[in-house]
């Protein structure tokens, strides 16, 4: 394995050298369909955004060649990342991120993925956050009105939390909350955020940490309610849900980023082209409206700002994983 | 009464010329993607989602639902004509559909598939129309322990599937189960059984890769050896007598239709199950309960009707949790769900009241789509039958190419193509040694579902198996579990059971 790793590093660094020495001025445009790798299954949050981006590009002819989403969901994103790593220098491959790009390289060192050198970050379009949800008629959470009520209840009782799978964002968050508030819960993994939401309303779990869109249907029908949103400010899609800052828990802040990356070793012109394309998509009216209605935060970030953000998030996740174990 | 008004509106909506044109177009695309090995309704719907951004949501869902639906019909075509499952939902159709075609009764098999699909589709859409809200409640209460009980029931029916040789059947089931554990551990999130760290194993063994390998490649090798390349399947004539015979054969499949329609629908409404497990379970149970269960696998129309009826019924059923709970009942509805969200609709308990035109337009279109796909299918049977006139020397390479593309398409990785070839040889050897392969295919589909449900349940119960048998706490799970145990024991007491059953009938 280590030989392969070294070889890959050599290849990557060689191609970097090659790229920096031959910087042509000719503007790039794709010569064949662009593969958009999704490190998660069909129908999930990342898949949804990827297909939205594909649709917006196709509908408005933003690109000369089509974008083709491909799901590689194996190994918590490990399969997708290994694939993109092998595509170093390829000008027709992109990957959309979940936070598993931050956790999987740490959790599965045997994959030999170097987050900072195997990818070229292009842009962050959206951040999604999490809320603490309980069922309106939850039998174990009756009488819970506020997040503080919930903490008190959770401390004494082993509540059941539904989540999207081991070492996924919500289990790490549970670990974070365990450290901050001193309660633990029995974690039951489901397949996908939708199933988690249903498990809550169906009475199998007592609380969940879902994305806004995953609970939207049950929230609107009054079957579930949110206690806190893990952001500095309230979200217009959930006007009555307090932010964690308001409640005096600024440490309870967490984001899921929807960013796009290319393989390592691509030409600066190529990087510029894709960043520009994503920028056009970002400012598309339909793209904006859809995401805002869905409770997502529009948060464009590119260049050094993005690199700093990724470095901070990578470190933060490393910390969470360490505490978790 | 109100419902009927909404439904009529929905039917009229889907009969508007634009919607109707999309519906027929969608059915045709569906037939094609369904019939092409490796391309199934999942791929078809995923590829077409972007097109739907430019048309209104109601038209979009009618179009995509028609694709979904057409694919359920289409899968049967290559299962019967080529012996390669056209889609994962049509794997069980190979079990009896292929032998029928080899016997020269392809006409009967195709007719059975088309009519079975129509019956399943129609029964399920009627159930959907009448009982959608209360059934959503059932789906909501159907959690991990209930799902596991259902899976045990499915496995119980498989034991009887491989014929008389129970140890060989169990061996085959275990091979399937072992293969299904490769990939990602569902609970710890860690990779598991990744041989030699080959990244291709990270996504597990795709079930279609196994099915196409065993049935496509394995069958081809078998045919080559048996016939030394001199395959002749002539004496095919399409005349009224043949047509009459084909429809006549359906008389014996009433039980299969009932089982397929109702079981398919209920499995369909359960989250995360979908049409593939539904068709396999329906086949297993129909065989188990049939009076001539020994003949299953050698080409009986009921063995085609049961899975085809169930996969259409389940595909309608799986739209129920999608619309009312916002959770997909199958991989294809997961994509449809993504589409709905992109069209600006919020799936959930309020969708029926907030967007009646959309929901009833969809339901109405299912009635119409069923009718048109039946007509299209029956009309196209003579064209499908021409495949059988192609000499084997030409057909074999075509089948091989279709198998390779079919193995490649779902994950776009060459790793799976090699794996498929390997399974092809393994399947051929197992067949030479007289091992049944169907149970292995079944258990690789249901293995992950069963494992997940079992482990979720055991986390909830702190490790106690009592959670599956507690009739006061989890009545649904317990009842299904007891039925499963009876089904498991039944083959052992088969003769006894049959005598009892006959007595009851005459009494």
Description:
The complex is a heterodimer of chains A (325) and B (507). Chain A is of the alpha/beta class and 325 residues long. In chain A, 43% of the residues lie in helices and 20% in strands. Chain A has helices at 2-21, 45-60, 78-86, 100-107, 147-156, 169-181, 193-201, 212-220, 268-282, 285-293, 303-324, and strands at residues 34-38, 67-71, 93-96, 119-129, 131-135, 159-163, 185-189, 207-210, 224-229, 255-263, 297-302. In chain A, helix 2 (45-60) links the parallel strand 1 (34-38) and strand 2 (67-71). In chain A, helix 4 (100-107) crosses helix 11 and helix 6 packs across helix 11 (303-324). The longest helix of chain A is centred in the last third of the chain and has 22 residues, at 303-324. Chain B is mainly alpha-helical and 507 residues long. Chain B has one domain. Chain B has helices at residues 2-15, 17-35, 41-48, 57-81, 91-102, 106-141, 144-159, 166-180, 207-227, 240-248, 254-269, 275-289, 301-317, 319-324, 331-342, 351-354, 356-385, 392-408, 414-432, 438-460, 475-489, 494-506, and strands at 183-184, 191-192. In chain B, helix 4 crosses helix 5 and helix 7 (144-159) packs parallel to helix 21 (475-489). The chains are: A alpha/beta (325), B mainly alpha (507). Chains A and B meet through helix 2, helix 3, strand 7, helix 7 and helix 8 of A and strand 1, helix 15 and helix 20 of B.
């Amino acid at each position: 394995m280590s030989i392969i790793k070294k070889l890959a590093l050599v290849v990557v660094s060689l191609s970097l050298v090659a790229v920096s020495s031959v910087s042509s001025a000719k503007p790039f445009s794709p010569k064949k369909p662009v593969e958009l790798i999704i490190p998660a299954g069909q129908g999930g949050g990342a898949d949804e955004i990827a297909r939205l981006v594909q649709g917006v590009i196709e509908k408005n002819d933003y690109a000369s060649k089509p974008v083709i989403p491909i799901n590689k969901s194996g190994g918590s994103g490990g399969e997708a990342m290994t694939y993109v790593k092998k595509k170093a220098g390829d000008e027709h491959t992109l990957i959309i991120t979940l936070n598993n790009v931050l956790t999987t390289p740490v959790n599965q060192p045997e994959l030999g993925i170097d987050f900072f050198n195997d990818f070229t970050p292009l842009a962050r379009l959206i951040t999604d956050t999490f809320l603490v949800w309980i069922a309106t008629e939850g039998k174990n959470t009756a009488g819970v009105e506020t997040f503080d009520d919930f903490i008190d209840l959770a401390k004494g009782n082993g509540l059941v939390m539904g989540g999207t799978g081991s070492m996924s964002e919500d289990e790490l968050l549970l670990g974070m909350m365990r450290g901050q508030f001193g309660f633990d819960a029995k974690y039951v993994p489901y397949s996908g955020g939708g199933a988690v939401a249903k498990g809550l309303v169906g009475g199998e779990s007592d609380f969940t940490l879902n994305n806004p869109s995953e609970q939207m249907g049950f929230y609107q029908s009054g079957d579930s309610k949110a206690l806190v949103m893990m952001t500095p400010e309230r979200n217009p899609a959930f006007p009555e849900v307090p932010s964690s800052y308001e409640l005096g828990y600024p440490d309870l802040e967490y984001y899921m980023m929807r960013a796009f990356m290319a393989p390592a070793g691509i030409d600066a012109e190529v990087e510029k082209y894709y960043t520009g394309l994503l920028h056009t998509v970002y400012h598309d009216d339909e793209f904006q409206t859809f995401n805002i209605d869905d409770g997502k935060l529009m948060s464009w970030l590119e260049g050094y700002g993005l690199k700093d953000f990724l470095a901070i998030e990578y470190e933060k996740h490393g910390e969470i994983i360490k505490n978790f174990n | 009464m109100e419902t009927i008004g909404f439904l009529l509106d929905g039917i009229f909506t889907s009969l508007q010329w634009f919607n109707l044109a999309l519906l027929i177009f969608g059915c045709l695309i569906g037939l094609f993607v369904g019939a092409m090995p490796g391309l199934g309704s999942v791929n078809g719907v995923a590829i077409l989602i972007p097109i739907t951004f430019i048309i209104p949501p109601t038209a979009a869902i009618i179009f995509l639902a028609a694709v979904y639906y057409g694919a359920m019909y289409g899968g049967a075509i290559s299962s019967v004509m080529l012996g390669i499952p056209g889609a994962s939902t049509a794997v069980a159709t190979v079990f009896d559909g292929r032998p029928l075609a080899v016997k020269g009764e392809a006409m009967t098999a195709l007719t059975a598939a088309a009519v079975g699909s129509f019956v399943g589709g129609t029964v399920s859409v009627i159930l959907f129309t009448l009982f959608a809200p209360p059934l959503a409640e059932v789906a909501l209460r159907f959690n991990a322990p209930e799902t596991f009980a259902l899976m045990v029931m499915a496995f119980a029916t498989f034991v009887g599937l491989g014929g008389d040789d129970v140890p060989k059947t169990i061996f085959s089931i275990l091979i399937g189960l072992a293969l299904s554990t490769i990939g990602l551990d569902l609970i710890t999130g860690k990779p598991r059984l990744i041989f030699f760290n080959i990244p291709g194993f990270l996504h597990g063994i795709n079930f279609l890769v196994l099915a196409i390998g065993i049935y496509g490649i394995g069958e081809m090798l078998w045919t080559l050896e048996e016939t030394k390349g001199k395959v002749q399947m002539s004496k095919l004539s399409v005349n009224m007598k043949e047509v009459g015979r084909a429809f006549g054969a359906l008389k014996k499949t009433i039980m299969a239709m009932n089982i397929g329609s109702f079981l398919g629908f209920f499995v369909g409404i359960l989250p995360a199950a979908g049409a593939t497990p539904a068709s396999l379970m329906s086949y297993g149970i129909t065989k188990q309960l049939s009076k001539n269960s020994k003949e299953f696998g050698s080409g009986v129309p009921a063995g085609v009707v049961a899975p085809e009826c169930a996969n259409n019924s389940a595909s309608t059923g799986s739209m129920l949790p999608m619309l009312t709970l916002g959770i997909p009942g199958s991989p294809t509805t997961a994509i449809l769900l993504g589409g709905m969200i992109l069209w600006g609709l919020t799936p959930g308990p309020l969708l029926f009241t907030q967007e009646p035109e959309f929901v009833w337009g969809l339901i109405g279109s299912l009635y119409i789509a069923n009718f048109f796909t039946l007509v299209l299918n029956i009309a196209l049977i003579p064209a499908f039958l021409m495949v059988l006139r192609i000499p084997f020397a030409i057909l074999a390479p075509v089948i091989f190419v279709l198998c390779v593309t079919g193995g490649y398409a779902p994950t776009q990785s060459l790793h799976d193509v090699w794996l498929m070839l390997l399974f092809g040889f393994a399947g051929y050897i197992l067949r030479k040694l007289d091992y049944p392969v169907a149970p292995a295919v079944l258990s690789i589909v249901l293995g992950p579902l069963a494992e997940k449900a079992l482990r979720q349940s055991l986390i909830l119960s702190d490790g106690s198996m009592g959670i599956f048998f507690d009739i006061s706490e989890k009545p649904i799970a317990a009842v299904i579990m007891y039925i499963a145990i009876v089904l498991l024991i039944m083959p052992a007491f088969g003769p006894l059971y049959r005598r009892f059953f006959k007595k009851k009938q005459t009494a």
